[in-house]
Amino acid sequence: MRPSAALTAACTLALLLGAASADARQARKVGRGASLHQGLLMLDTHLDTPASLALPGWSIMAAHDVKTDYTQVDLPRMKRGGLDGGFWAIYTPQGPLDAVSTRKARDYALMRASAIREMVAAHPESFALADRAADAARIKAQGRRVVYLSIENAWPLGDDPTLLQAFHAMGVRMAGFAHFRANQFADSSTDAEKWGGLSPAGIQLLAEMNRLGVVPDLSHSSDKALDEALRLSKSPIILSHSGCRAVFDHPRNIDDSHLRALAAKGGVIQINSVYVKAHARNPEREAATKALEEKYPEDRRLTLAEYAAMLAEKRAIDRRFPERDRATFDDVMANLLHAIKVAGVDHVGIGLDWDGGGGVAGLEDVADLPRITAALLKAGYSRADVQKIWSGNVLRVLAAAEAAAGKS
C-alpha cells in the first residue's frame, strides 16, 4: 500500500530532525573535547626545538610550516595544539671520547642551554623558565609557555659528573646518559656493549642527579643501564621519548617486563613518534639523507644562503626518494595504549621527539596534538586520566626527584 504524501513528509521530517539532533550531539561532544584539551596542562618531555633556534632567520614567535622548513614547534602552533611547553633538550650528537672533542661538546652544550634561556629572556610575555614541578601550573595560568631544560646525551660532561651542577644552575631538571653510541657514562641501546650497563662514572652521575633533584632519563640507554638505574636511583626514572617493543621490536623501545619494572619504581615512559612501526628499507633515501647530514652537521652555524640550500636539497631528496610505508597517528596510539595497558595510566606520558625526527602521518607537528586527547577520550579514559598522561605523571616524577634531592 502506498503511503500518503502527508505521512511521507512527516517521516522525512522526523529523519531530518533526528539527523540534526545527532549532528548537534556530535558537535557538542567535539566542542567539549576541544574545550577539555585546551584546559589541560600539556607538557612534552622531549622537544628538540632548540636546534631550530640556531637556524638563520628562524623565529619561535612566527608560524612555520612543516612542509616548507620541516620544523614542528613554534609559539603559534603551540597555541593551536594546546601545548603548554615541556622539556627543551640540550642535545649533543655523540663524537669521539678524547679530551679535545669532549671539551668542544661541553662548550656546544653550554651554548645550546644559553640559547634556550635567551629565547625565554627575549619573550618573557610568552615563555618562562621553570625550576620546580609546581611552576608549570603557575606559568600556564599566566598565559605563558613552560620551559624546563633537559640534557640528551651526557657526553659533554666529560670525566666530571659534578659539571652537572652548572647545567642544573641553568635550569636542567632532566638528564639522559647516552645517545646512539656508548659513551663514558653508559651503554647505548643501539651500540655494542661497552660497560654492561652504567659505567662507574655513570653510577656517579646518577648519584649526582639524585643529589641535585635532576630526573634520570634512560631513553637511548641499554636495558642493562636501565636495570642498574632502577636498582640504584633514589628517585623514579623517566624514559623521555621511547616506545613499546611489543608493538615494534626495536632496541630503542622497551619490553613489557621493563615497563612493569619502571612502573613498580614509580617511573614513567613518555611515548615518542619515531620507533612506532617497522619500515621497509629505503637505501637511496638513507644514503642521501646521511650525505646531507654530513654536509650540514648539527654543530655547524649556517648562513642564510646555506640554510636555503640545505632546505632545497632536503626537498629534492623527498621528491626523488619519498618515504615508504610511513608511520601514522594510529601507530603512535598503538604504542601509547599498549604502554597504558601494561604499565598503568599513572606511568605513561607524551614525549614525541618534535624537531628531532618525530612526526607521523596525521601527527605532523604540535598543532595536531588535540587528536591524541580525542583518541584517549574515545578509548574510554577520563579527564583525570588524560591529565596524568599529558603532564601529571611527569610532574609527579619531577616532584619526587626534588623531594629526594640532598638525601643521598
TrEMBL record:
It comes from the Bacteria. Residues 1-22 form the signal peptide. Keywords: Signal. InterPro entries: Metal_Hydrolase (IPR032466), Pept_M19 (IPR008257). Pfam families: Peptidase_M19. CDD domains: rDP_like. PANTHER family: DIPEPTIDASE, MICROSOMAL DIPEPTIDASE. This is Dipeptidase. It comes from Novosphingobium cyanobacteriorum.
